[in-house]
Amino acid sequence: MDEHVRISHFRNHYELTRKNYMVKNLKRFRKQLEREAGKLEAAKCDFFPKTFELPSEYHLFVEEFRKNPGITWIMKPVARSQGKGIFLFRRLKDIMDWRKGTAGKKPTSLEAQQARGAVNPSGSHDSRSSDDQKEEIPVENYVAQRYIENPYLIGGRKFDLRVYVLVMSYIPLRAWLYRDGFARFSNTRFTLNSIDDQCILGPHLPSPFVLRPSCPLAVLREHVHSTDTF
Prior knowledge:
30% of the residues lie in helices and 19% in strands. By secondary structure, the chain is of the alpha+beta class. The N and C termini lie far apart (41 Å). The longest helix is centred in the first third of the chain and has 19 residues, at 19-37. It folds into two domains: 1-148, no CATH class; 150-230, no CATH class. Strands 1-4-2-3 form a four-stranded antiparallel sheet, with helices on both faces. Strands 5-6-7 form a three-stranded antiparallel sheet, with no helix packed on it.
């Protein structure tokens, strides 16, 4: 690419933005660190919880699940946002119930394309015929991740930070951070008492999208604050 050309995305940016690809790259980085710097240095790369991609790593997940009975896990679709498709669980039966609940659901056109790869992350289209694609049953990939049961809270609520970064290059890494970001807070105080009710995500997801769609804008704004507040 010529020096004067600018594009809005780096090539293969989805390696960081899709949940399953991001965790694969983190695991790959940890193994590389172990080879190059030793196990002691690689052990410092422990900032993300145990994570498995389903259905491809289901048996590995079940093995880990049975080693630690009673802990909480969170399931997240790899390519969705706004809290859609997320649920928490403590029993394998909950996954089976979830699979039964989704088995008969007809996916949207975009979800079906993403599930079978008709539209891949780079934006190119599948070369197979539409008849071949219709015969396939799309399977949506999820990540199962060990849930952080003792998160850092502000005012008893979970939160996340939204900041803007302009990345000029990856090698060498050059980035500019815009300091005026904002924080999003969960709409209710954090508790683990609602785990068994998969419809209650308010204490767990700091996103205004988990509120009822009919919520007034003023109510939504109560859960978003500028980082200047802190």
